[in-house]
Amino acid sequence: MKLPSYLFQNDHGIYYFRVCFSKPVRLHLQKVEFRKSLRTRDKRTAAACSRAIKLHFDQLCQRDIYTMDWLETKFVLSKYVDEIIIKFQEDIMEYGTFGDHITNYPELSVEKEAAHYRNLLYKNEPVDIDSFPLLKQYTAKIVKECDLETDPDKQDRNTVQVAEMLKELKQNRIRLLEELYASTPSLFEQYKLQFEDDITESNPDNTLQLDAILKNLGRMGAGTTPHIKGNSQPNVTFRQLIDRFVDYKTIKKIWGSPKTVEQNKQRLDYLHEFFEYVKNQNDIPLIDFGPDDANQFEKYFQLLPKNRTKKYPNVTIQQLIKESLSGSIPLNERISDTTYNGYVDLLSGIFNFAMEPRQDYIKKNVFVDLKIKKVSTIKRTPFTANDLILFFSTDLFQKKDFKIKYSWRFWVPILMCYHGFRLEEVAQLQIKNITADDDINVIEIKEEYDNVTGSIITKVKNTSSERIVPIHNTVIRIGFLNYVKYLKDHGEYRLFPDLPNVSKSGKYKKAGAKVSRWFNEDDKKNYKYSYLTNCGINGDGKERKVLYSFRHTVQHLLNNHPDNIENDKIDRLFGHTIKAIGRKVYGGYDTPTLSKVVELINYPNSKLPWDINPDYNKIKFPWE
Question: What is the DSSP letter of 104?
């Protein structure tokens, strides 16, 4: 199957939707193209998804694109992509394969006759045209209307051509139904109603169906979807929009847990209270929102205090803003940049929801480009030699004192310490990711999706993160491959079975969250302290370090290694984008080359237990 121009496949087999803007749109948006991953390697699914997205794109270009800037356009298109992918995944989960429940939509009698007629011809069996009255009737009608040759010798040829035309007509109808269903369910339902009404009116005896289908295809278009005005309700208020937005998110389970739903409700109520003050009215019609309201939000919302319900439970928005302007609320008591940007996302999201075709309450979202650049975070510092001594001095590593279930407590730090992995890359590893390449044991970091459900199996930060990393000989010497064999023998498929990356509801979640909590996070209120605090690395008056510091430790070691390692080799090992075009485009480094770099990662000054204890391997692991 030839790929449409707006669909392409990257080097890793993932399909992307990509569309180049026309010159007028390009000049308006100051952008050349839009691209978005379809998160699938299945060609049929990608093709169907991309057709549906292309319908939305064409519709957007015809109607609204010149009223939006690039950020709005990107948001709307990305939202379409995400919604269509979710739709396809839901259909695959429910029906086994996309489209089967749609393409079973009633076949026309004349299409059945045409298919039977073609089959007989294909088998070289005798054909009696009188046995196909509908096909004969339509052939005569088309010959007459198109002024074709009526010579009896041409009758068979004309009938064959009509049968082929009906085959293409059916294919177009099915494609239209799939596209309508995937892209705009409301149009799909309307098409069904129009089709059924036309069939009933024009053909009560189920004989004359072709005219109705041709009329519908002409009305709807076999490859384009017309814009049908949505539920335009100029009197819808901001309060009503919030209620409908919450219902939508809850029904779709987009916000996940009830706790998250409740938190977002409270935040939306806070936004409503803010705009009640700004506009000095309770029931605010959506059509009353304009650019001035966005400016007011940008100017004053950042002045509000954090923990308002606890510290200022009975104080109005107006009073809070006045106190903040007067200095009564100090800067460090105001909401953080992150919190402010979170409210911006929620506000922009609800107004984008109001623009959707199914709502069509407003034509433009004025609450865009309101985010503020976060203050650059403090760069994590690497572990020192003394930090590593403290980290690996506990019974966890000295005596291999841990339960099999918690094997990640032992192996995750070691894998990060000798390879510079990201935490999530290690936590979500599967057994099949530990393989051999050029007779060298390696760990394969890659993104993978379930071919049936489309759900995430393993996820990476970006495209360049996918790589093959040789396993350090020290890690093998400690017993890592024996641990992998133990898991295989017990039928496990994840390297750390206790770290699932799928929630009970079937949604993707970070496998490393539990690891991060155990190693990094203190709960002083309940007198629970993290591993890094208990081992002495973190504490009062000390610079806080986290498990991710291992990645910085390895980076620092290789950057300052006396062998002057090439930056591109380090970037390849770490999953960063390679700068040199020659290696990036025409080929990178092979496994033996990277293995030499990995073996340079050593810590002779840190007295690690497996380096100083010659009998370390005699200490048994819990599974031995």
Answer: T
Query: For the chain, how many structural domains are there in total?
Result: 4
B/e letters for 162-186, b = 16+ CB within 10 Å, e = fewer, are bbeebeebbeebbbbbbbbbbbbee
Token code pair at residue 486: 């133990």
**What would the pLDDT profile of 380-429 be if each residue is shown by its tens digit?**
689 999 999 999 999 999 999 999 999 999 999 999 999 999 999 999 99
CATH of residue 391's domain is 1.10.443
Helix count and strand count (H, E) for the chain: 28, 8
pLDDT of residue 492: 92
Q: For position 133, what pLDDT does the model report?
A: 84
**Alpha carbon distance 53, 78 (integer Å):** 10
Q: Which pairs with CB-CB distance under 8 Å and at least 24 residues apart come from 608-612?
A: 608/388, 608/392, 609/392, 609/393, 609/397, 609/398, 610/474, 610/477, 610/478, 611/474
Q: Are residues 39 and 159 in the same domain?
A: no
Q: Whole-angstrom distance between the N-terminal and C-terminal Cα of the chain? A: 53
Of the candidates 220, 254, 273, which is a domain's last residue? Answer: 220
**Residue numbers in the chain where pLDDT is lower than 70:** 1-2, 63, 87-107, 122-123, 147-155, 170-235, 256-259, 374-380, 451-454, 525-527, 579-587
Contacts of 269-276 with C-beta under 8 Å, sequence gap 24+, read 269/242, 270/308, 270/343, 271/242, 271/343, 271/346, 271/347, 272/238, 272/239, 272/242, 273/317, 274/300, 274/301, 274/304, 274/317, 275/238, 276/317
Phi-psi map region of 22: left, alpha, beta (phi>0 left; psi -120 to 50 alpha): beta
Distances (CA, A) of 587 to 15, 63, 573, 578, 583: 22, 45, 14, 11, 5
Quick one: 460 and 509 in the same domain? yes
With H, G, I as helix, E, B as strand and everything else as coil, classify residue 108: coil
DSSP strand pairing (440-445 vs 434-437): antiparallel
| Cβ pair 380, 252 in contact under 8 A | no
Task: Give me the domain span that covers residue 55.
Answer: 7-97
Strand order in the sheet with 33-37: 7-9, 15-20, 33-37
Cβ count within 10 A of residue 431: 15
